[in-house]
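Z., the sequence and structure:
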Amino acid sequence: AAGTVPRRRPPRSDMGRGLTLLLLVLLAAPAWAEGGTAAAEEVQIEVLHLPETCSPKSKKGDLLNAHYDGFLASDGSKFYCSRTQNEGHPKWFVLGVGQVIKGLDIAMMNMCPGEKRKVTIPPSLAYGQQGYAQGKIPPNATLIFEIELYAVNKGPRSVEAFNQIDKDGDKKLSELEISQYLKEEFARDGKKRHPSAHDEILADIFKKNDHDGDGFISAKEYNVYQHDEL
């Protein structure tokens, strides 16, 4: 089951976080598809604070930075606090692609930097009948989150990220371009890897993204979240 905390933690470097997260997203298909309006209506949203300037509003595929606390609706007990995790740093995650529970993906749409919300999420959009023992969440639990959103940035499937990899500007990513991108990312994080890691990751990226098998990742294949027009 998806967790209330992002499964992957991008580096906290402001310069490198988008491209590093791009690699992670290229290697993983979205965990859930967009649901219908019925699911969205089940999430109750109360706006606690709305700043005078509300731009940009969050949308699917954006990279968000937020703090949030989680409570059980049954007794009000707190089961999660982002301020006590990861040395108190706000969480970075891509909205709408399953890095958090479905209810949070829905609840944080159309939210602006500086906004605070209190949201109530039913079990069907949280941990369902199974619950989440590791997170001290019982079966069939309704959850309440208090969220403070700090930043809304272009996500890793944005036009900007695509163009940084597409060196020749032909609107498609070749194996050479992705290979060069991987080399740059590996050099940036400085971690030691087996020589075969590069080829294995490159092959996996094309397996998951080159849907028509032509040896390129087209703009359409790349922009699966469709928050921008490539």
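The chain has two domains: 44-154, 159-223. The chain has seven helices and eight strands.

Let me know what you think.
H.
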